Amino acid sequence: MECRKALEDKCLRNNWCRELVRLVIAVEGKDESHGYPHTLRVLCRALKLAEGKNVDYKVLIASVLLHDIGRPFENETGVHHAVLSAFIARLVLPGLGFSPEEVAHVEKAILEHSFSLASSRPDVKSSNKSSIESCILSDADKLDALGAIGIYRLVETSAQRSRNMHDTLGHYHEKLSKLPQLMCTEEARREAEILLERLKRFVNWLYEETREYADLVNVVDKAFPLHG
């Protein structure tokens, strides 16, 4: 299903969904890496992955829309953004007509989407209905970190976090290169392998072009110490 039509049919016709979109826009802002543009891309991917599966769309859409809403508060609170996002979901969803069971499923999916919250990852072998929403959110979120979009996000996030090239390449090897093997669904795993090749090509070019210069900064730093 084409993304815009899926968004209109599955989400924007429902008042609860429109209210969540308003909340996400207000809280996350326009940051392409982790703001609401990222959330909308993940939603499009999630709706595509959900086609033909026995999915609770209300749970899935709410999980996707709220999966990163705690991120703006992560640094100041010292609490993982997925934990904060699940907490916010628990606060706002009952007022939008979600049952306790639906809220619990949304919380589970949000907690399980994060790469860094390793203890809560969805079981990649699971296909039962209670976890399919978790798997789809996790897959869709990880797919957005690969491919050409992944290149953009890698560079933008590195700039935001003051990573140098060495640390940026380290992030690729420690996290991004491992994402295909963490996919729950076969469709996402196949797409992830394709998208990873695009990202890998960029990383290899970066290695190739910087190899000759890799130690220059260290050499200069030693020759001209700031407090020498």
Automatic annotation (TrEMBL):
Q: Which CDD domains match?
A: HDc
* PROSITE patterns with a match to the protein in the record: HD
InterPro entries (UniProt xref): HD/PDEase_dom, HD_domain, HDIG_dom
Q: Where is the HD domain?
A: 35-146
NCBIfam families in alphabetical order: HDIG (TIGR00277)
Entry protein name: HD domain-containing protein
* Protein's organism: Pyrodictium delaneyi
Q: What is the lineage of its organism?
A: Archaea, Thermoproteota, Thermoprotei, Desulfurococcales, Pyrodictiaceae
